[in-house]
Specification:
Layout: E1 22-27, H1 30-40, E2 44-45, H2 56-60, E3 64-68, E4 74-79, E5 100-103, H3 109-118, E6 123-130, E7 133-139, E8 145-150
Parallel strand pairs: 1-4, 5-8
Antiparallel strand pairs: 2-3, 3-4, 6-7, 7-8
């Protein structure tokens, strides 16, 4: 159903939605994805008492891994061993989500690009410089585009 201004009966008020609670990604190879997000990108993997009670069994069985971004947003990885994108070419967008962008201090941007290159991760686009800042785009092990970006240096 497409909503139009005339079809809206009730709406949430600005500020009702407080923050992004979590982002969930399906991944084919859990170990490769855990290495990518935890080791290469340096996100904190939740373990022990940090794991939400509702996910303890799934985490223990290796079906889910949880990471926290520095701002507290949780990234959930769900193991989907039969996962295949509709198009094996990662340049072809295959979902409505285009990419996941991580912000970095402008002084660390070049270091982040070097980490991507040193880990032999193919850079899809960039580094690019725009009025909104700098960015570099690359793919996670399942072909989902990741961006590391920074604001312009002042």
């Amino acid at each position: 159903m497409v909503t139009t201004p005339q079809s809206l009966n009730s709406v949430l008020s600005p500020g009702n939605l407080r923050r992004v609670h979590h982002i969930a990604l399906n991944v084919k190879d859990m170990q490769a994805s855990r290495h990518f997000y935890g080791t290469i990108l340096g996100l904190h993997e939740l373990t022990g008492d940090e794991v939400p009670a509702t996910l303890v069994e799934l985490v223990a069985s290796g079906k889910v891994a949880n990471f926290a971004t520095p701002d507290g947003t949780i990234l959930d990885l769900f193991w989907t061993p039969e996962l295949t994108p509709p198009n094996p070419d990662p340049e072809q967008s295959f979902t409505r989500a285009y990419h996941l962008a991580f912000d970095i201090d402008p002084g660390l941007f070049e270091q982040a690009v070097a980490v991507v290159r040193e880990n032999q991760i193919t850079i899809a686009h960039g580094p690019v410089t725009r009025p909104t800042g700098r960015g570099v785009y690359f793919y996670d092990p399942d072909g989902f585009m990741i961006e590391i970006r920074c604001d312009p240096q002042s």
